[in-house]
Amino acid sequence: MSTATIDQAHAGHSTHDEPTGLWSWITTVDHKRIAIMYFITATFFFFVGGVEALIIRMQLWNPEQSLISPELYNQLFTMHGTTMVFLVAMPMAVAFFNYVVPLQIGARDVAFPRLNALSYWIFLFGGIYINLGWFIGQAPHASWVGYSTLTSSAYSPGLNTDFWFIGLSIIGIASIAGGVNFITTIVNMRAPGMKMMRMPLFTWMTFVTSFLLITAIPVIAVALIFLGFDRTFGSVFFEPAMGGDPVLWQHLFWIFGHPEVYILILPAFGVISDVIPTFSRKPLFGYPIVVYAGILIGFIGWGVWSHHMFTVGLGPIADSFFVAATMIIAIPTGVKIFNWIATMWGGSVQFTTAMLFSVGLLAVFTVGGLSGIMHASAPVNLQQHDSYFVVAHFHYVIVGGAMMGLWAGLYYWFPKVTGKFLDETLGKWHFWTTMVGFNLTFFPMHFSGLFGMPRRIYTYSAELNVDLYNQLSTVGAFIFGISALIMAWNIYRSARRGAPAGPNPWNAATLEWSIPSPPHHYNFPEIPVVRSREPLWNAGEREEVLAVTMPDPAEEPVMPVPSYWPILLAFAITLAWALVMTGIWWVIVLGIVPVFFCVLMWAFEPAFPEGH
Amino acid sequence: MRVLPNWKSGVRPRVGAPLRALLPILLLALATGCGVEYPQSTIDPRSDFAEIIHGLYVSIFWWTMLILAVVWIALSWTLVKFRARPDDPKPKQIRGHLGLEIGWTVGPALIVVAIAIPTIQAVFATQRPLEGDPIVVEVTGHRFWWEFHYPEQGVTTANELWLPVDRPVSLRLGSVDVIHSFWVPLLGGKRDVNPVRAVREGQDPRYNWLYFTPNEPGLYMGQCAEFCGESHAFMSMRVNVVTEGDFDAWVAGWFDSSGAAIPGDPGVIEGADPEAGTAVGPRDDEVESGMATAQAGDAADDDLVATGRDIFLNQAACGACHAITGTAAQGDIGPNLTLFGLRTSLAAGIMENTPENLAAWIIDPERFKPGVNMPGTGYNMESRIVAGSPFFWPATGLDDEQVRAVSAYLLSLR
Predict the structure, then answer these.
(1) For position B300, what pLDDT does the model report?
(2) How far apart are CA A133 and CA A139, in angstroms?
(3) Do A348 and B78 touch (CB under 8 A)?
(4) Domain B258-412: which topology?
(5) How far out from the chain centre does Cα A170 lie?
(6) 3-state secondary structure A370-415
(7) 3-class SS letters over B172-217
(8) In the predicted model, is pLDDT for residue A214 greater than 80?
(9) Cα A493 vs. chain centroid, distance in angstroms?
(10) Which partner from A23, A549, B286, B404 sits 20 to 30 angstroms from B383, CA to CA?
(11) Chain A within 8 Å of B203 (Cβ-Cβ)?
């Protein structure tokens, strides 16, 4: 059977077998719906964080300007960073994990569907909670790294920091649960024949990222709980007057924080490792090397945290160790870049929007990687640390790397999710406005930093002569904002009126393209057998796979039943954490009761319909 | 509203030394036109420490440019050469090449080694005290100002650090509240000013140190580089690098202008000696700046100064927080104001030290520096709790004329 006939056979594919309506979304345990909710929520927060950034940029338009108050400015940059890392980049990657990984490995859902729903609801409530401070004028204000002792009750007496540490603690639960879920899914639920070294790169990078999640998030959880005890119960973990150590916070934060950087970037690497071969019509060059480089980055990522702390005064021996480790981690990253270029070499490169974003990532992420090598050199770091040079660097890495990769993924997988293409013309507008806006915003920051403008300052002296660079950045930021609006409009419009896409519109190689677009809620009527890394590119294998994945089954597979316990438990957990703010021990203890109740009800609820 | 200190009165940065900064400077010249001054530039070194860093930066800069060129050229070439054409056959399905993989692992690894070796040498070289007879200064970070104590000289000043040129410096860094970071880019890299942890009896508290030798006289700008709260942006400083002779004269003036310190006896010391001020004036061009007006010593001004001194010491009790050597004012909560009239800037480097600015500051410090502990003249602003301490500072209640007198008194201290 050819692709064309399959497309026709399923052109009228309906989703009548799926429940609709708000309640069905609230109680869903379907990984695809959870993915869509993750994506929409993360995109919403992307606009929230973006507006915060634009206000920051307006305040920095002129030197010695006072458009807003310093306190509000501090809240804005704190929440911009917190939002973009925890509520945008991470959950948007998780949206892709959710949608794509089960489809790529030939699974009908993740290993723990209700836990998956719980992760989403906790993320949503945590994200709302951490933003509640805005409504009483007490949003978090001690920067996204929350360095002690600025977060102590002496220097942050309001509720600002309470919203921050409680909100992040809540969101962390979602990440840990998600990590456990994806490791279990990938280890246990691969289709027959899909050995580890046959997995698509995106699944591989999800796997590595999940290990980072379950190992890194607990460290910040510990730090946040220490902070919570210091603030709420008067312990002295970070209190220097009592022998506590503020530098301990920095170690804990960055032991989490550096793996976190790889949590953000590895999913993007995974996306483009799937996109580039598809649009080059060639398999990934050096597959095992790219996989091992990803794993290596994950491991070494644990040994570089103190390169965020070269100014702290850890001594020359510690500094030298972290210089060496940090420089070593550049090697596997470079290897990946060369392998991607080699994948395109000799190929037939199609410049779809997804491909443009992937190529764009290679071009601009490299800039971020190289400025990273500059401040990996500890003495140079003493000049660049906490200056706008570093602001430029990490935006090149996180926006130019992580976000560009995720936008590549958006254009790549949108047809699978909706059965419709994202408009390519708008897509190209989105790409080019992003490139112009992004580079115009962040490239001049290299200069404002080199000329001595520290980061996290409300305003700067006219004497510094950095106003021109700041104005370029502000103009760039607004162009970047326009690119985000184009993206949102494209998603909205294409979801309703996009050109129809068949099961495999890009002629891609991996399993998710073997099923209809959008997929049935059970994904695969029958689980295919995999014999290679590119099952849909190998003539014989392709026919075998499609023969079991395309036809409608006589009897639909049994899927987990919807449940409202995930959302209730998520709410109970959020409430329990929120009550910590009262500082009254028996209220806090009482707050745990609904959590136990929900866990109990959940435990006794059957996961599958009766009789299965 | 705020008037910033006039950088032009200090030494100009050497924009004309582009060879050392190479491409960054060229790029910047293209972007901005030549002749622009960057008083906080990280690529314009004026100390041995800053020069080591800059040399390292320039060499790494060129290595990264090489890598960037390789990646961008390879990428663009590939994209152009292998762009899809309508009649493309299925590309050859190549899965890898061991030789290439080894090549692009080993190549970057060698570059990394080439960068890491001088880096680690510099790490050790910059973190030990310098040879010679270093002058020690104990730097204390406060929200939001700097305290500089010279244990050897017995001098405690604030926000403007005086250093003799070509003599090694050892800065001992400690904070009384949150983490700050000492950064004067032309003189070298930053180092965090960490809160000093309480230790058991017999143990020494741990401090960070910065070691450098300024090699050119001048007035250098710096500021706190670690976010320290609401007015972090308003925590600047100046470093006044002067000749050995000027430095010694400044130290001598610290005691001469006000005599020996006699705590608890405000009456002993006469106010200002204009001669002393002129004697240690660091630069001729400084005379042109606003403070010069305060020292035109006619009788009316002397009266004003005497009134101001009385208000400062008695009525407004400024001495509860501030110290002036040789007077009863011995507070150690706020900046030490001895020789205040010599300072070029005010309120931790955020405005020029003129009578007008000083009066505006005394009337309402909160307006210039939100979160500051110093009370204004009235309750028109929120009284702030001194961090970690339970009591509020009352407003001083001074009227404009009294404020003018206090300003005159402070500016006469030179």
Answers:
(1) 74
(2) 4
(3) no
(4) Cytochrome Bc1 Complex; Chain D, domain 2 (1.10.760)
(5) 17
(6) HHHHHHHCHHHHHHHCCEHHHHHHHHHHHHHHHHHHHHHHHHHHHH
(7) EEEECCCCEEECCHHHCCCEEECECCCCCCCCCCCCEEEEECECCC
(8) yes
(9) 24
(10) B404
(11) no
B11 CB neighbours in chain A (<8 A) are none
Contacts with A124 (C-beta within 8 Å, 6 or more apart), sequence order: A37, A41, A570
The CB density around residue A73, as the number of other CB atoms within 10 Å, is 24
Does the structure show a pLDDT above 80 at A17? no
Distances (CA, A) of B232 to A165, B148, B377: 22, 18, 24
Cα–Cα distance measured from residue A133 to residue B332, given in angstroms and rounded to the nearest whole number: 36
pLDDT digits 0-9 by tens, B197-241: 988 888 999 999 999 999 999 999 999 999 999 999 999 999 999
B385: helix, coil or strand? strand
- The domains of chain B are located at 48-125, 135-242, 258-412
The residue with tokens 């050392």 is B20
Each residue's pLDDT tens digit, A485-518: 999 999 999 999 999 999 999 999 999 999 999 9
Residue whose entry in the numeric block shows the structure tokens 């006794």:
A604
CB < 8 Å to A320, chain B: 120, 123-124
What is the count of residue pairs from A and B with beta carbons less than 8 Å apart?
A: 298
3-state helix/strand/coil string of B93-116:
CCCCCHHHHHHHHHHHHHHHHHHH
Cβ contacts of residue A253 below 8 Å, gap of 6+? A145, A146, A147, A220, A223
Q: Which residues pair with B163 in a beta bridge?
A: B241
- The answer for A 435-454 residues in CB contact with B (under 8 A) is 444, 447, 449-454
Instruction: Select from 3.90.460.10, 3.40.630.10, 1.20.210.10, 2.60.40.1920 the CATH code of A3-20+32-560.
Output: 1.20.210.10
Q: How far is B37 from chain A (nearest CA, A)?
A: 7
For the domain made up of B48-125, the CATH class stated in words is mainly alpha
- Are A365 and A399 in contact, with CB atoms under 8 Å apart? no
Is the Cβ pair B105, A331 closer than 8 Å?
A: yes
* CA neighbor of A169 nearest in space, from A597, A602, A579: A579
